């Protein structure tokens, strides 16, 4: 979360210092360093086995690290038992007590902390209002929808104002429409409370929509950390480009044309490279050129071009994508401009893009 102009940056809420975890010869998390400012919404994103859940479980104390330290507000909490860490947890399965009402479920962590009855009732009412469930306090979990149960789980976590809130795929069991609605609810709660949230998901769209920063993980280590825009628009590796959104990836070697301008020579053609791409990416040797579907054009200008045959059209409501098979057996994806009719299947087309649209990674 970026500070406002003229203000000091937020203090470091959570610091991961060389944290690692191994199970015998299997490394679940390579030595990892990470700092999370107070009030940030950080998403741990990656495929299964990337280490994101292992990292989350060590932060909350469910898994003991093999090495390294966990500091919260500057205090070393590496060996602190789970119940003594000032951390809130929200899981995919709501874990509500079926024999307690909604209000009793939300008030449970306050009762466990010895909060006085009058203060407890007020805080429970405030939490119910925060998640728009003030009229359902006397109901039992079985009488609620999935989305309502998840909001109860969120209220139960936020009610005692933990130092850090950890969420492990909390929306994974919900359908797409409800999941999107709950994404908005969680973002709203984050804005209103200023809580520090670490959120685990494997859903790229969810991570892009919700996060202040994304920590992309792969092979038990951090692949790239940045804002959603940075990771999407300026990926540092081919994995980051391929995992976040849709990418067209051209692999080749960096050379110079007859005029000395940098080009990428691939099996499918020779592509001009911008000075910015060279500055951000590989300088010589083998490299991959990343071009997003919205940067490609079927009837526009561009100093790079490939030709191929239309093999499929994908209509997704808000956008239409065209898949074009190239002569080297690879396929590129083009997002059509709004209002543009897709070409017929089998048509031969030219796909163009401007060199400054490409991102170069090693």
TrEMBL record:
An annotated Gene Ontology molecular function: ATP binding
InterPro entries given in the database record: AAA+_ATPase, ABC_SmlMolc_Importer, ABC_transporter-like_ATP-bd, ABC_transporter-like_CS, Mo/tungstate-bd_C_term_dom, P-loop_NTPase, Transp-assoc_OB_typ2
Keywords, ordered alphabetically: ATP-binding, Nucleotide-binding, Transport
Protein name: Spermidine/putrescine transport system ATP-binding protein
This protein's record includes keyword Transport: yes
Domain ABC transporter: 14-244
PROSITE patterns found in the cross-reference section: ABC_TRANSPORTER_1, ABC_TRANSPORTER_2
Native organism: Azospirillum picis
PANTHER family from the UniProt entry: SPERMIDINE/PUTRESCINE IMPORT ATP-BINDING PROTEIN POTA, SPERMIDINE_PUTRESCINE IMPORT ATP-BINDING PROTEIN POTA
